[in-house]
Amino acid sequence: MIQLTTSQFMLVYNMLSFTIAAMFAAFIFFTGARTQVGEKYRPALLISSLVVAIACYHYFRIFNSWEEAFTLTNGSYVASGKPFNDAYRYVDWLLTVPLLLVELVAVLNLPKSEREGLFGKLAIAAFLMIALGYPGEISTDMTTRAIWGTLSTIPFLYILSILWGKLGATMSSQPPYVQVLMKNIRLLLVATWGFYPITYMFPMMGISHEASLVGVQVGYAIADVLAKAFYGVMIYWIAYAKSEADGSLPKGAH
Ligand SMILES: *C/C=C(C)/C=C/C=C(C)/C=C/C1=C(C)CCCC1(C)C
After folding, report:
1. Is the CB of residue 152 below 6 angstroms from any atom belonging to ligand 1?
2. What average pLDDT does this structure show over 37-52?
3. What Å distances lie between residue 217 and 90, 116, 126, 227, 247, CA to CA?
4. Ligand 1 atom having least distance to the Cα of 90
5. What residues contact 105, with CB distance under 8 A and at least 6 apart?
6. How far is the C-alpha of 63 from the C-alpha of 66, rounded, in Å?
7. Ligand 1 within 6 A of 45 CB?
8. How far apart are CA 151 and CA 100, in angstroms?
9. What pLDDT, on the 0 to 100 scale, is given for residue 226?
């Protein structure tokens, strides 16, 4: 029987609430920033807006589900009988992870032929990564969790290695300050995406069921803010710097 202390319950509650606010603010920012970059980089900004809008919606649902899943009884939060719905998160990733990949491919501005083949491979790998992770996420058996987690890690490593290589390959043709931005987003990508499998492992680390439940929710929320909102800001910086370098910055943008 799950029994959360008030502070455990409130930590997740506040973190989810903060994430809703962060995604909403990011949506307004990206929507406004779109006209500040050159025409060919605008699709990347539009996709950033879409990603945080989808995430904002799902965080609303996750927040409500969290609230309904527990009731305050004798000073602690116990399961209300309504299950906490983890599926919102995975549905969110199924939609947003491919979009985040498109966003990056869009800002790299690769030739059309290369872009399409690349995106197909990445989209399939992203789908496999998330679909294989889900059965483990909802399982209470740690061996099952470890097996699905390991399977999911294969497409995960494949995605990271492709992106790392592509970013490296297009970097050399960029002005030095764009190269710095691209190096930074590459690190952000590996660090934040790497945070998901680490968070996934919390329940396998021998901590209490309550602590791992809280840890997983807080961990994924932090990772989502960084991998969607902050990553979108970095995409904007790259788009702006590249527009400046190729002279496509709209008049009046500064
Ligand atoms: C906005 C959401 C993003 C960027 C989600 C990314 C999710 C991952 C990189 C998840 C990876 C996983 C593994 C590599 C193994 C364990 C299961 C997952 C799905 C947590």
Report:
1. yes
2. 96
3. 13, 35, 21, 15, 44
4. 19
5. 115, 118, 119, 122
6. 5
7. no
8. 22
9. 97
